[in-house]
Amino acid sequence: MANLGNYPSTPAFSGVNFKIETTTQQTTSLSQKRYRNSIGTTFFTATAQYPPMTKAEFRPVMAFIAQCQGPLNEFDIVLPDISENQGDTAGSTAEVNGTHSATESTIAVDGLAFSTTVLKAGDLIRFTNHTKVYMVTADVTSSGTGTANINITPSLIEGLSNNEAVTINNVPFRMTLANDGQEISVGTTEFYQYEIDLIEVL
Length: 202
What we know:
Layout: E1 3-6, E2 15-28, E3 34-49, H1 55-68, E4 74-77, E5 95-96, E6 106-110, E7 117-119, E8 124-127, E9 133-136, E10 140-141, E11 148-153, E12 166-167, E13 173-177, E14 185-186, E15 192-193, E16 195-200
Parallel strand pairs: 1-4
Antiparallel strand pairs: 2-3, 3-16, 4-13, 5-6, 6-11, 7-10, 8-9, 8-12, 9-11, 13-16, 14-15
């Protein structure tokens, strides 16, 4: 398996169906009491649709898809709107402040613009040392010295070192194709129609 780099940014997607996936084991007793337990971690999947494309527009995408070899090879992809955060990230070069262990869900950062709402609940972030994308669960306002705590879900799947960079806008997902087969439609007007199913790499 290989990392193919960045997924083609053009032509742009016309829409994205985004899913938050969490596996939960449930057992129901005879008295109808339910017992629930989370298995693994939360991950993200998406189905992205293209508008009708000309041959010249689509063929570079088709070549990249062929290189993926189904789910074998991975790539980074920025999803429209989903990857774009709501806060004021201008002037911020976020870095991890201190060390953090796997399973922690509150991450101290510094290097932020002063006294600004940098991130809002529902925004996404990614750390340099691993490819998992995390969702911010509460608004993040930096202090007068550019520090803040970021609450995330799921909890960290890997530990963090001091001064690791944090991507806080246009966050790329590390993904693969979800299926072995890729279906491409060509109409009588010679416009191509295609949608892509994606699953996050952990």
